[in-house]
Amino acid sequence: MRTSVLTLVRGRRTHLINLLKSIALQTTPPDELVIAWMQEAPHDDLPDPECPVRHVLVPGDPLPLAAARNRAAEAARGDLLVFLDVDCIASPGVVGAYQKAAGEQEGLFLGEVFYLPAKAVGDTLDFAALDQTGAPHPAKPPIPSMGVREEPDAGELWGLSFALPRASYLDIGGMDEAFVGYGGEETDFARRLAAAGLPFFWTSGARCYHQHHPISVPPLQHFDHILRNAKLFYARHGRWCMDYWLGQFNERGLIRWSSQSTQIERLREPSAAEIVEAQQGDSRLFS
What we know:
By secondary structure, this protein is an alpha/beta fold. It contains nine helices and 14 strands. It has helices at 13-24, 65-75, 94-104, 127-133, 166-171, 185-195, 223-237, 243-251, 272-277; strands spanning 3-9, 32-37, 53-57, 80-84, 88-90, 108-110, 113-115, 135-136, 148-151, 161-165, 200-203, 208-210, 255-256, 265-266. The strands form three sheets. The protein has an eight-stranded mixed β-sheet with strand order 3-2-1-4-10-6-11-9, sandwiched between helices. The longest helix is centred in the C-terminal third of the chain and has 15 residues, at 223-237. It is globular and about 55 Å long. The model is unreliable at 283-287 (pLDDT under 50).
């Protein structure tokens, strides 16, 4: 089974370097790495991931996440697509675990992610140390110790690390590029895959580590994008996504909304002071 690892990049040079180092350490190397650059040009002076690298340029604002994933998938030559976010570090067994799972059943495969504190990653990747300092997401179910376990809720799709057959990705038209900027495209993608009959599985042995970076809770800098994409998702599926953020916007008096609402009423824009105050600085807040 030919396997393509795909990642999306805007900035994040240090994160990308660590991801590339981890790809070079895979016990089952991928056949290629496809990098979709959401910027005008690739970074230079990057480490060798010990596999062929192909570059796709997908610049644009707002952040073209769905388009970048689609261009990467279209460019990939592998039968299996392994999507890893640029702020992930892959443990040595990730590619092999996804390959084994995909060789035994058809589906979309989800891997475990440990969140790392600041300064947890040195010049050399020490996976034993990352296991000790990382923490699993408290809202995610336990990962099977062997094999896979089916996940009935497609909403568990975790964009940080997942794998599926390239044919399954392309057959449903990839991610919907009507979702632009922050939020919604992965949840929409998951629901369409589930509706097409593709099962989802939690996968043992596919642990990644999420590298620390500042975040905002709630992400007020993406206020307009979240409202737009939430409305689009509701129009497509008759239910809301990003409920957590919408609830926090409602609590702050920015919108009038509840989970039973059929629309979002915008009350005001977040102030510059509120946007600064929301900057928590710790990506281990498990947003």
